Amino acid sequence: MIFYERFCLWLGHIKLSRVIVMVSVILFVVPLFTHYYLSKYETATVNLGSNSLRNTLEALGDVSAINLVDLKLRIEEMLRIKASVSTELRELEEKRGRLQREAAAASAKADNVKAEYARATAELQRLRVSADQARIAQLEAIRRDTPELFPPAQILPSSPPSVLPPINPASEIHCRMHSCFDHSRCSLTSGFPIYFYDPDIYAPVAGAEVDGFLKTTLRQTLSYNAHLTQNPNEACLYLVLVGESFPLEKSALPTVQPLKLMLNETAIKSLPYWGGDGRNHVLLNLARRELSVGSGDAFSGASIGRAMIAQSTFTLQQFRLGFDLVTPPALGPPGGDVWADCAPMAPARRKYLLSFQGSQSLTTSTSKDNDTFLIDSLKNMSSVTPATDLFFLQFDCDPPVEKRSLISIGDWALCGTDRSRRSLLKESTFVLIFAPCDNSYATTALLQARLYEALRSGAIPVILGGDRSRLPYDEVLDWRRAVLSLPKARITELHFLLRAISDSDLLAFRRQGRVLWERYLSSVQVSMDSLLATIRTRLNIPAQPASPTQGAPAFNESFSPPKIEPPAVDTEPEETLGPLEAPYPSPSYRRNYSLALLHGYEMWNEWGEPFALYPQLPWDPPVTSEARFMGSAAGYRPIGAGAGGSGKEFSEALGGDRPREQFTIVILTYERETVLAAALARLRGLPYLNKVVVVWNGVTPPTPTQAWPDCGAPVAMVRASRNSLNNRFLPYHLIDTEAVLCVDDDAHLRHDEIVFAFRVWREHRDRIVGFPGRYHAWDLNFNNGFLYNSNYSCELSMVLTGAAFVHRYYLWAYWRALPAAVRDYVDEYMNCEDIAMNFLVAHITRKPPVKVTSRWTFRCPGCPVTLSADETHFHERHKCIQFFSQVMGYTPLLSTQFRADSVLFKTRIPHDKQKCFKFI
Question: What is the rounded radius of gyration, in angstroms, for the C-alpha atoms of the chain?
């Protein structure tokens, strides 16, 4: 306190000048000292030498105790450590890079090992499945206790028929197959060889005049038959043309009697292989003369021994049931397509409800019916029927016809020309056919001619007196679905019966009548084939197997195209589609010679049509029932059972007993190797796949250096002889399964979709089952036709065969049952083969196709422009539907709104419970 007071007194006595000087000195000296010491400190920092460091420390006043030598050594050691650490860091960095490279190589190797392990595991699983299948097949064989059967050796006779004493003429009427036919010449494996007596060689011996049309026609048509043989010593059956090549003696009787045709027995019995009694001979009378001569019964009063008669005119006493055959008259062309002669099936009801044209000379014989009552009843009926039910009845021809030849049997002559009669029949819903007044006649050539013309024009025949009439091949054909047969006593009920038939039944009658006419009556060829097939059916001899198409390989047999490993496909591990199994062919068919063929699961006849709908004659060359495509009798594999291992479990879950089964994929491609390679790569790991058949439709062969991916199944590439879309449906010999998946090379299908479609097809084996749906719609512009439509709709009537399952039988039917005009139209426009297949299947089954999943079309990004991209594509498909309808007489396509979708696509279900679900 005292110091503070003194200091204040001292400040008060200091002059201002002294204060200014003191402050100036302080402000000048202090910066100088500060600058000096700071410069010294920076020099010591920069220079790390021991002398500079010591001077700096001395300037700071606290370095006197530090050993400068030790400090220098420490700093040098730190510098060496720093250099060593830097070197080690560089080495570690190099080592780290090397280890990273080694780790990457090890990882790649591990991935390869994993992939190899996966392939080895799949192969092991495949082998295990194959072993399991072999064990199951062994157990099944033991359980069935069925020995492995092989067809017996072919047994053929080596000598002509031995000469036996002639049969008593009185016993000829009692001839049947068991008593008058030599079965020893027709063994089960003989193949049913037939021999035809050439009219140019044998007829002139008897001085007969040969009919040129029939001589040329029979030669040509029989040459197409697989059973014809040129060696008479091995023949089972001998065909003789009678009535058109051998002399028929005309007995000139009074004018009131008809001209009588008499068989020259001497010419017949002098045939070299007659054998004394004519056994195994068929005498053909094709009735070309009968329509103008009248009676047409060339065998009346003649002795023919044990020979069979095949003609259009028979008496009830003369016809030997189960031995003789009723054949249609030879009114049609030699062969070929006959669709142009047919009338359209629609509309169901035509201008006239009933029509008849004919002329008859009545007699007063007690053995003959008097049709006067029938004529009066028909006239009264036509006068009281409403205006909507028009009758066209003409009982006298204008101009009149010669009736002299018809007096003896009271038959009705044809009026007018074929053209005039056809124009009337095309306008008639029903046509009346009278049985002959003579009650002793079962059938006549004129009755058969009227039946022929009626079915050709789509008029439903109504046969009065049909209770005693016999129709062609009626022992194997059910005419009740095409012809109405009434006793003459029910003539008064005729109008009611005709009006009681609905439109749908009318179309069914008309359609069945056209089928029968086209396939059994329309031409000489189909009539002869039907005749021979009827006799072969009596003998229970299987037909010759249909020969499959031998596809020319695209490469030489010794050449093997290079293979590449397909890229890995990501699959969901929990999605089990089925076991992968090695392909193997179908098992041998063991029921070729059994009557149980009629009780198969499909109930199809040789045309693929259900017996309930088409009870028709088995027609050569296909064999019977399930083995109709290939028969074991000739060493071929049948189509009765496919191959595979996973189908058995699926079948058992459905309660069925179908064998294991696989499918074959047929890919049609045209010089698109890159697209084809991608399509094959997508098939890798596909279950149930038996084989892939690639149809190379290009002009130039495939490149030999092209590498093809391994799809996990055999791949056969065949080269087509020409560029045709019909080649998609050729029945290649490489196809060993019933199921055939037709696929375009640019169609993208997932494995689960294919497997699901295959399972659906197994429940609908007679239909087309596929993905892209289409439908036909009526033309609203009043062009009187259907149009092709590809818009999205709930309704469909077609499934395109660019991605669809079909039965292998339909590949054969496409080339045999479908008119050639349809295939020619496909070749002309390079379009519509899929529509043609849909027409064929719908016509055979009368069922719509089955569409699976929601796919409506397919996209192929990056693919070249296809046929469907052309703006004229849809216009051509419109024309296709209209032309195919014209050829077939109607549009067989049927519409449906049913679509098969699997619940497994929507909901995850445990594998042990998936078999409980099918699809919705």
Answer: 47
Residues 6+ positions from 376 with CB-CB distance below 8 Å: none
Residue 545 DSSP class: P
Concatenating the DSSP letter of every residue in 65-83 gives: TS-HHHHHHHHHHHHHHHH
Over 70: is that where the pLDDT of 609 sits? no
Residue with tokens 């029910």: 490
Confidence of residue 39 (pLDDT cuts 50, 70, 90): low
CA 896 to chain centroid, in Å, comes to 20
* Main-chain phi, psi angles of 434, to 5 degrees: -90, 135
670 contacts: CB under 8 Å, gap ≥ 6: 697, 698, 723
pTM of the model: 0.76
Residues 354 and 431: beta-carbon distance below 8 Å: yes
3 exposure class (CB count in 10 Å sphere: 0-12, 13-18, 19+): exposed
Residue (of 292, 291, 290) closest to 300 by Cα position: 290
Alpha helices (runs of H) in 577-718, residue ranges in sequence order: 646-653, 673-681
Token readout for 634 is: 């000739």
DSSP state of 232: G
Q: Which tokens in the block code for residue 581?
A: 């199994």
Tell me: cis bond preceding 819? Omega within 30 of 0 counts: no
The chain-wide mean pLDDT, for the chain, equals 77
Where do the H-state alpha helices sit in 47-163? 50-60, 68-144
The pair of three-digit structure tokens given for residue 407, joined into one six-digit string: 């007096």
3-class DSSP state of 633: helix
Residue 429 in this model has a pLDDT that exceeds 90: yes
Maximum C-alpha span of the chain: 195
End-to-end CA distance of the chain: 113
State the Cα–Cα distance between residues 360 and 413, nearest whole angstrom.
6
548 and 733 in contact (C-beta within 8 Å)? yes
Active site residue 834: yes
What does the alpha-carbon distance between residue 227 and residue 594 come to, in Å, rounded to a whole number? Answer: 21
d(CA 188, CA 778): 52
* The pLDDT value given to residue 666: 96
Six-digit token pair at 397? 């021809």
Residue 920 buriedness (CB in 10 A; 0-12 / 13-18 / 19+): exposed
Cα dihedral angle (435, 440, 446, 451), rounded to 10 degrees? 50
Residue found by looking up tokens 């205006």 in the block:
387
Q: pLDDT tens digits for 650-672?
A: 455 444 445 568 899 999 998 88
**φ, ψ for residue 246 (rounded to 5)?**
-85, 150
Range 174-192 average pLDDT: 91
**What is the arithmetic mean of pLDDT over 460-469?**
90
- % of residues, the chain, pLDDT over 70: 71
Give residue 268's pLDDT band: very low, low, confident or very high (50, 70, 90): confident
- Give the separation between CA 312 and CA 436, rounded to whole angstroms: 13
Question: Helix, strand, or coil here: 193?
Answer: coil
How far apart (Å, rounded) are the C-alpha atoms in residues 771 and 537?
41
How far CA 580 is from CA of 234, 570, 727, in Å, comes to 50, 17, 30
Per-residue DSSP letter, 519: I
261-270, 541-550, 775-784, 825-834 — most confident range: 825-834
> What are the angstrom distances between the C-alpha of 121 and each of 127, 556, 580, 633?
10, 34, 12, 41
The reported pLDDT for the residue numbered 23 is 73
Give residue 255's pLDDT. 42
Task: Catalytic residue, from 376, 570, 834, 901: name it.
Answer: 834
pLDDT in tens, 243-266: 665 544 444 444 444 444 567 778
Counting every residue, how long is the chain?
920
Strand duo 850-852 + 899-900: pairing: parallel
199-219 b/e (C-beta count within 10 Å ≥ 16 → b): beebbeeeebebbeebbebbe
Take residue 324 and report the two structure tokens written for it: 């003789």
